[in-house]
Amino acid sequence: MWDSLLCLDASSCLVKYGINITGRNFELIPFGGGRRICPGLPLAMRMLNLMLGSLLNCFDNWKLEDGVAPETMNMEDKFGLTLEKAQPLIAVPMT
């Protein structure tokens, strides 16, 4: 599965093998899978957006993508179990 086990290669963990966290891949058996997957996974997936957003909010060097002003942003919502934006916000880090 991995070419070099003793060398850290972050690209080997990406989409190369088509692995996702839904619990249907045998590569992730140590973390649980199928019916025995971690029961906190849905909560963790919801909290990830909040924690990442809070972390990024601590940094002041962000701007909207080119051609977008705060007054012209699409603020429509997408109805579901949770209320999401119809168009996600795209923020660009300033250098």
Describe the structure.
The mean pLDDT is 75. The protein contains 1 helix and 4 strands. 18% of the residues lie in helices and 11% in strands. A hairpin with a 5-residue loop joins strand 2 and strand 3. The protein has one helix spanning 41-57; strands at 62-64, 77-78, 84-85, 91-93. The N and C termini lie far apart (38 Å). The strands form 2 sheets. A two-stranded antiparallel ribbon has the order 1-4. A two-stranded antiparallel ribbon has the order 2-3. It has 95 residues and is an alpha+beta fold. The chain has one domain. Keywords: Heme, Iron, Metal-binding, Monooxygenase, Oxidoreductase.
Summarize the model shown.
Keywords: Heme, Iron, Metal-binding, Monooxygenase, Oxidoreductase. The chain has 95 residues and is of the alpha+beta class.
Total domain count = 1
For the residues shown, what is the average pLDDT? 75
Main beta sheet: 2 strands, antiparallel
How are the strands of the biggest sheet laid out side by side? Answer: 1-4
* N- to C-terminal distance: 38 Å
Tally of helical runs: 1
Shape summary: extended
Rounded to the nearest angstrom, the radius of gyration is 19 Å
String of helices and strands? HEEEE
- Please give the share of residues in helix: 10-25%
Kindly state the number of beta strands.
4
Label the structural class.
alpha+beta
List low-pLDDT spans. none
Pfam families: p450 (PF00067)
Keywords: Heme, Iron, Metal-binding, Monooxygenase, Oxidoreductase
Family: Belongs to the cytochrome P450 family.
GO molecular function, one term: monooxygenase activity
